[in-house]
Amino acid sequence: MNKILVTTHPACRGHLTGPGHPECPARMDAINAGMTSHGLWERVDREEAPDALPDQLARAHDSAYVEEILQLDGREKRLDADTVVSPGSVAAALRSAGGVIRGVDAVLSGSHRHAASLGRPPGHHARPANAMGFCLFNNVAVGAAHAMAVHGVERVLIIDIDVHHGNGTQDIFYSSSPVFFFSVHQSPLYPGTGFMDETGDGDGQGFTLNLPFPAGMGDPEYLAMTERLLLPLVDRARPALVMVSAGFDAHEWDPLGGMKISTAGYARMFRLLIRKLEAVGIPGVLVLEGGYSLEALRECAPAMIEAALHPEKEDDATKPAPPRKEAAALIDAVARLPWGA
Ligand SMILES: [Zn+2]
């Protein structure tokens, strides 16, 4: 048995979004090629993602919405300006969510220390009752809800590092405290939410945290964010499971995002997080979200898996530059919010 379970499925290629759409089947090919060239498939346990079941999806979505999407199987439909369904899309979406559920089962049953789900379509914009922003089902939210419903987990921490705000995940858990949601993202940018004053509602007050970064932030800012917010949050939120909405569209090569994280910066961020999880004995489930530079995906998805396999690997000796003042001020402001109050 290997330390990490990686789930994916060939059906995830079958979600066809049309010519020129950045969320394309070639993303799966790029990741697969990178995993192969880095010799990673031999060093992880690889499984085909199962189908998510309607009842599992309905823990995060309205059951009428789940039914509406399932009815589109084999058909074509445009759901919003940039979210389309092709005949293979529902099959892809079921595998994409099912892979996360399988990963949650693996780490919570103790068969694996960590898991990663490398499927598409992504999920973090999908809201309780509507598809949005390339996303049909909210894979990470379905996984978190599964952890609580089936494994009795009392607290899940979801960390969303995609360059876009994870508005769907935030909406699904906005009024509840069992899921602590943290998102760092570029602002202003699609979908136009994720401001610092969005901190949860009712029982969920203090269990949502948003760090809106201006465009142009890179390794120094993201590493400072990791050390000052993410790592303390793992202690503060006291989760039994940490899930990461792993978007690679904050990479310097990404055509949609305006951030500057390098491949080495992503690797270092994941190593810091995984080291922390292992120090406190919490499993991690890493869930692919966005990332639209095929070249960046080919390097960064394997770098994430490598970091989970070998978090102890030394960081390069060069001390990262200090974060820009504006970013440091934003990080300080989020650090002062009443987390989990
Ligand atoms: Zn994104």
Question: What keywords describe this structure?
Answer:
341 residues; alpha/beta; Arginase, Chain A; two-stranded antiparallel ribbon; globular; binds zinc ion
Describe the structure.
The structure is a single chain. By secondary structure, the chain is an alpha/beta fold. The protein has ten helices and ten strands. The protein has a single domain, classed as Arginase, Chain A. The strands form two sheets. The chain has an eight-stranded parallel beta sheet with strand order 2-1-5-10-9-6-7-8, sandwiched between helices. The structure holds zinc ion. Zinc ion (ZN) binds next to loops.
How is this fold's topology laid out?
Layout: E1 4-8, H1 26-37, E2 45-48, H2 54-57, H3 63-70, E3 77-80, E4 83-85, H4 89-109, E5 114-117, H5 139-151, E6 156-160, H6 167-173, E7 179-186, E8 208-213, H7 219-237, E9 241-246, H8 263-280, E10 284-288, H9 294-309, H10 325-335
Parallel strand pairs: 1-2, 1-5, 5-10, 6-7, 6-9, 7-8, 9-10
Antiparallel strand pairs: 3-4
Bound molecules: zinc ion (ZN).
Zinc ion binds next to loops.
**Mean of pLDDT:** 97
Q: How many β-strand runs? A: 10
Distance between termini?
41 Å
Please describe the biggest sheet, giving its number of strands, its sense, and whether it closes into a barrel: 8 strands, parallel
* CATH superfamily annotation: Histone deacetylase domain
Q: Remind me, CATH topology? A: Arginase, Chain A
Order of helices and strands: EHEHHEEHEHEHEEHEHEHH
Helix content: 25-40%
Judging from the principal axes of the Cα atoms, what is the shape?
Answer: globular
What's the alpha carbon Rg, rounded to whole Å?
18 Å
The CATH level-2 architecture is identified as: 3-Layer(aba) Sandwich
Which percent range describes the beta-strand content? 5-15%
CATH class: Alpha Beta
Category by helix and strand content: alpha/beta
Low-confidence stretches: none
* Spatial strand arrangement across the major sheet: 2-1-5-10-9-6-7-8
Provide a count of the helices. Answer: 10
